[in-house]
Design brief:
CATH superfamily: NCX, central ion-binding region
CATH class: Mainly Alpha
Number of strands: 4
Helix content: over 70%
Shape: globular
Oligomer: single chain
Radius of gyration: 18 Å
Number of helices: 13
Mean pLDDT: 85
Distance between the termini: 25 Å
Order of helices and strands: HHHHEHEHHHHHHEHEH
């Protein structure tokens, strides 16, 4: 195909992927809620991981097709976009008040998982054993989330409950319609993910750029659209904990869940440039959150502008 057709295929894939993620999250949230799962657990796991489903599908398809550089670039780019682009834009639209527990408990977990990528990848390869370790870290995080629900402040629990009820029309019982949305969403994710991988690889070839670069930019932003929509919706309802929690949960899932799954499907060679450039950029962007959030326990408009500017600067540097 020519470049124009490949761009159309890539764009179409992003659109199908977005709606697939939306339908999957809608059905999964309703099913989890009808089964009596805590709204906070639903918010921190089902919503966060559901909005990261596009990255999971794209990276898995890329690994199966041997386009492993695209998978690595997508994860690094998505984590950059989650913090710099999504939190930055969301805070500019509406400042985000952040609870102390986010700074002292959840953000360190995100940093720990992010930093944990380096010793596994320092040999320039994520083996299947490394994938098992990453998935084990994800399982430990899920156990932690489930066990910590009872320790949350009532106002935070109420915030998550209101978000789940208002945004996804919570049901009291399992409904066949919800199962349909899960199946339809999953099918669209696979279709959209395949289109993105094929289109992105061809576009990169036509333009003479690496798969890491195309994964870091266009693919990463496209697969991060569900996180952006969720964050903006939460911010509009003054539910900052959900906006920030969704980004943190997604970043943890991207590294531990997505790279772990992709490595098990097929061991991933890690370009040396990723450890010298993309990974440090992700780690520095994650560290940047601490002083910004700690200042007044909120991400104000000027902090959002700093995050957004840092994201653009990082892309300029990496490109």
């Amino acid at each position: 195909m020519n470049l124009a057709a490949d761009v159309v295929l890539l764009t179409l894939g992003i659109g199908v992927l977005y709606f697939g993620a939306e339908w999957l999250v809608r059905g999964s949230v309703r099913l989890a809620s009808s089964l009596g799962v805590s709204p906070m657990v639903v918010g921190l796991t089902v919503v966060s991981f559901g909005t990261s489903a596009p990255e999971l599908v794209v990276c898995t398809v890329a690994a199966l097709s041997g386009d492993t550089d695209l998978a690595i670039g997508n994860v690094m780019g998505s984590n950059l976009a989650n913090i710099g682009l999504i939190l930055g834009l969301t805070a500019i639209v509406r400042p985000l008040d952040v609870k102390a527990r986010v700074v002292w408990r959840e953000m360190p977990l995100m940093l720990l998982v992010t930093a944990g990528f380096y010793p596994l990848a320092v040999d320039l390869r994520l083996s299947q054993a490394d994938g098992v370790i990453l998935l084990g870290a994800l399982a430990a995080y899920l156990v932690f989330v489930f066990q910590s629900v009872g320790d949350e402040a009532p106002e935070i629990l109420d915030e998550y409950e209101e978000f789940i009820k208002s945004s996804k029309n919570q049901r009291a019982s399992v409904n066949a319609e919800d199962v349909f949305w899960v199946i339809a969403g999953s099918a669209c994710l696979v279709l959209g993910g395949t289109c993105i991988v094929v289109g992105a690889v061809q576009v990169a070839t036509h333009l003479g750029i690496s798969q890491v670069v195309i994964g870091l930019t266009v693919v990463a932003v496209g697969t991060s659209l569900p996180e952006l929509a969720t964050a903006l919706m939460a911010a509009a309802r003054q539910e900052a904990d959900i906006a920030v929690g969704n980004v943190i949960g997604s970043n943890i899932f991207n590294v531990a869940g997505i790279l772990g799954t992709a490595a098990i499907v097929r061991p991933l060679p890690i370009p040396e440039s990723v450890l010298r450039r993309e990974f440090p950029a992700v780690l520095l962007m994650s560290l940047l959150l601490f002083p910004l959030v700690r200042s007044g326990w909120r991400i104000g408009r000027w902090e959002g502008a700093i995050l957004l500017t840092s994201y653009v600067a990082a892309l300029v540097y990496l490109l």
